[in-house]
Write a structure and sequence with these properties.
The chain has 133 residues and is α/β, with parallel strands linked by helices. The protein contains three helices and five strands; from the N terminus they run βββαβαβα. The chain has helices at 40-48, 69-85, 96-107, and strands at 4-8, 16-23, 26-35, 56-67, 89-92. A five-stranded mixed β-sheet has the order 1-2-3-4-5. α1 packs parallel to α2. The N and C termini lie far apart (35 Å).
């Protein structure tokens, strides 16, 4: 399989960009910008466009500077995508603010305590970006 696509929301302070690449049977979505109600459709489109037959999906989030509840809902949809296809999905390298949103959400009653997100381990051969210091 071969695939590389770039998607983005409208330019401006809330811009979001997603680059999708395949490394073997692993799709890597590299995300940059802000994930909120206005930009999350770009992520949904990127996931919907993934080819069938993948072995895993990695969302590389080093470039995400802000995430709100819309981002949490996206991660739930991504998890459901992986469960339907019986493949692992991972969101890697969350910066401080998105990580804090995840931590607060776990304290809310009824929120699943999923170990799927976040992480730092990608499948072998899949490049990831190191979080800026």
């Amino acid at each position: 399989m071969s695939l590389q696509t770039d998607r983005s929301s409208l330019a401006g302070p809330d811009a979001l960009g997603v680059r999708t690449r395949l490394f073997g049977s692993c799709a890597v979505l590299t995300v940059r910008g802000e994930i909120d109600y206005g930009t999350v459709p770009v992520l949904d489109e990127a996931v919907e466009a993934l080819p069938s037959g993948l072995g895993s999906v990695v969302v590389e989030m080093t470039g995400v500077t802000f995430m709100d509840a819309a981002g949490l809902h996206f991660l739930r949809r991504l998890d459901a995508y992986g469960q339907r296809r019986r493949i692992p999905v991972r969101a890697l390298n969350l910066r401080r603010q998105p990580q804090r949103v995840m931590e607060l959400a776990r304290k809310w009653p009824g929120t699943p305590q999923s170990a799927v997100f976040p992480g730092r381990a990608a499948p072998a051969g899949v490049p990831t970006v190191q979080e800026p210091q």
